[in-house]
Design brief:
- Helix content is 36%, strand content 29%.
- The longest helix is centred in the middle third of the chain and has 18 residues.
- Bound molecules: adenosine-5'-triphosphate.
- It comes from Caulobacter rhizosphaerae.
- GO terms for molecular function: ATP binding.
Length: 337
């Protein structure tokens, strides 16, 4: 559905010259139809640039972006218009028209597309029902909560019947409970309408809840791509490890502040409930301090993760003993690093 082939993007500097650092460099990825694809990265990593290339809000400096069979950079005005009807977008700050009512905002893309009044009316009512806002049609954005505003954004993005929905930090301005509701709505659109979804975020929890696959972006480059389960449980890049640690509630500096070796244990199924920590400590003489831990669900599968620093005794033997018990051990940091 969406393919990036060796895409780079360099913005012009203040004097109109090419900037010295590329916002994206050599990005290749592909998103399958019906997939929920996450892009995670720190501020400035290039996430917004990446998502804006998909609907032609930016054009690549090199490489190709192919969306629904079209080379985006080669589209003329009419081609771009057609693409944007097939690719809806929602935003962190909703981008609603404050002078229009809720219904007016949702109807706007349909009116732009020249649809007849009766159809606009019926479709707007249907969309507002889909996002649970039928009773709010006559209200103005200023009278709505953040979650309600994002629902309007979603209804508007769906108006032209897109195949793809782009979510640009769509829950970053919302509280956790509202985030949960909006993510549930977005997941439902994927399941029920078969919408392909690309979302960018700096929160691993958002990826964990809704994505099938994720790409990790670092300084304009994709450093890791994979199934969410794979990247979440066994992150390979330093950036992914940091995001996962944050999601586990381990402060970024914890690895540097403690002695010994910092490891993350992943328990699945039975192993989660065995009293294994004390046994390993007794048998190997290793001491541990707990830096963070949580029991999660990765969509349907429950699993536990515990981040420990191991000191003294025979650390190698302790790691081997955990592994023998079916516990996955990932080295997160060494003392002083
Ligand atoms: N219109 C622009 N003109 C010049 N430089 C830009 C422009 N947009 C982005 N950049 C630069 O490109 C790089 C990537 O920015 P981008 O907004 O894509 O990252 P991001 O990961 O979305 O960050 P954030 O989460 O802070 O929005 C940054 O160095 C940024 O300053």
């Amino acid at each position: 559905m969406i393919t990036f082939e060796d895409v780079s993007k360099t913005y012009a500097g203040p004097g109109g010259q090419a900037g010295d650092r590329a916002a994206l460099a050599g990005v290749s990825l592909s998103v399958a139809p019906g997939e929920v694809f996450g892009v995670i990265g720190a501020s400035g990593a290039g996430k917004s640039t990446l998502i804006r290339l998909i609907n032609g809000l930016e054009t690549p400096s090199g490489g190709k972006v192919i969306v629904d069979g079209d080379d985006v950079a080669a589209l003329g005005v009419e081609g771009l218009r057609s693409l944007r009807r097939r690719v809806g977008m929602i935003f962190q700050h909703f981008n609603l028209l404050s002078s229009k009512t809720v219904a007016g905002n949702v109807a706007f893309p349909l009116k732009l597309a020249g649809r007849p009044d009766a159809e606009v009316k019926a479709r707007t009512a249907e969309l507002l029902a889909r996002v649970g806002l039928s009773d709010f049609a006559g209200k103005y954005p200023a009278q709505l909560s953040g979650g309600q505003k994002q629902r309007v954004g979603i209804a508007r993005a769906l108006a032209t019947g897109p195949k793809v929905l782009l979510c640009d930090e769509a829950t970053s301005a919302l509280d956790p409970e509202t985030t949960e509701q909006i993510l549930e709505l977005v997941s439902g659109l994927n399941r029920e309408l078969g919408l392909t979804i690309v979302l960018i975020t700096h929160e691993m929890d958002v990826v964990r809840r809704v994505c099938d696959r994720v790409a990790v972006l670092e300084a304009g480059k994709v450093v890791e791509t994979g199934l969410v389960e794979q990247v979440f449980l066994h992150p390979a890049s330093a950036t992914a490890r940091r995001f996962v640690m944050e999601a586990d509630g381990v402060p970024g500096e914890a690895g540097a502040a403690v002695d010994g070796r910092v490891v993350r244990l992943t328990f699945r199924g039975e192993a989660t409930y065995r009293p294994i920590l004390g046994a390993v400590a007794r048998e190997t003489g290793v001491d541990y301090s707990i830096l963070g831990g949580r029991i999660h669900r990765l969509r349907e599968t429950p699993y536990g993760q515990l981040t420990l620093s191991l000191t003294g005794g025979d650390v190698e033997a302790a790691i081997a003993r955990f592994q023998a018990d079916g516990v996955r051990v990932d080295l997160v940091a060494e003392a002083g690093r």
